[in-house]
C-alpha cells in the first residue's frame, strides 16, 4: 500500500477551522442549559445528593433521571477539556503568526485574568454557578506550570491526579457501605445544595448579590483546582492538542473510540445508580447520600472526555462526506465559535425568568417544563449564532475578551 493511501485529511470546516471542538462546544451549550436550570427551582424540596426536586409528575421524574445520568457533572469536565485544548491551539497559532513566547504567555495570562473578572461580574449580576472564574483560575495556574512541559510529564500528572480521584471515590463508597452495614448512628444529613438553590429564592435583586458572591469564590477554588477534575481534564487536553487529536480525528479513531466507549460506560453506569437513588428505588439512607456527589464528580470526568471523543468521531464522519458538513452541524459550530456569548446569554434569559427577584417561575415549574425552557433558550442562542455567522461577526463576549487580552493590534 502506498503512503498516499493512508493519509487521512483533517476534519475542518470550509474556512479551515477545526470542526470537532466547535461542534462539541455547540452541543455542550445545550447540556449546560439542561444542567444549570434545575438550580433555579427554589420552590421544590430537594434531596441530599442532588438539586433536582424530589417530587413531580412521571414526566418530571423521567427528565430528572435522564439529566442525572447523562448531564449532571458530565458537562464541566467536557468544558474544561475544550478550554485546555483551545489554550494549546491559541498558543500554537500565535507562535505561527510570529509572536514570541513571552508575548503569547502575556496574552494568555491576561485572558485568564479577564475570565476571572467576567466570572465575578456574571456571579454578582445573575448566576452564582458561574464557571468562567473556575476556568480562568485553572488557566492561570496550569499554563504557568505545565504548558511547556514534556508530553510525558503531562501524562504522568494526569494519571496521578486521576488515581487520587478514583482512590478517593472508592474510599468514600467503602465508608458509606460500612456506615450502612454497621448501622452507625449519624445525624440527619443537611443539604448544602438546597442552601445554594435558595439563593434564587431571594426576592430582592440587591439582596441576592452578596449571597451569590459569597458562594462563587468557593466554586472557583473548589471546581477550578481543589476538585482535581478540571486540572485533569485540562492537562489531558494539553496532551491531546499537541497530537492534534480533534483536528485530525481520522488518525486517532481507535483512541477516540476507546475513550468514548469506556468514558460513557463508566459515567452512565454510575448515573443510573444515582438516578435510582434519587427516585427512591434503592432506599439509600440520607445519612450516606453524600457519597453520590462524590461518585458523580469522578465518573463525570470520564463522561466528559467520552463526550468529547464522540464529537471527534462525528466530526471525522462529517468531514468524510463529499458535500461537507450540513446545516445542522453548521449551526452547532456557529454556536461553538461563540460559546462564551451563548453561555452568558443563557443567564441573561434564565435568571430574570426563574429567580424570585424576576418573574419567579422557579417556584412553579417542574423538571420537564424547566428542561423544555432550557432547550428553548439554547435554540435562541443557535439562531443568534447563525445570524452572526452569516454576517461574518464574532460573538460580542468573544470580541470584548479578545480585545482586552490582545489589544487592538
UniProtKB/TrEMBL annotation:
UniProt keyword DNA repair, yes or no: no
Keywords: Membrane, Transmembrane, Transmembrane helix
Residue ranges annotated for the DUF418 domain, each copy included: 240-407
Designated name of the protein: Uncharacterized membrane protein YeiB
Pfam families recorded: DUF418 (PF04235)
UniProt-listed InterPro entries: Bact_Transport_Assoc (IPR052529), DUF418 (IPR007349)
Transmembrane spans: 23-42, 62-88, 131-147, 154-182, 215-240, 255-276, 288-314, 340-359, 365-388
Keyword Chaperone: no
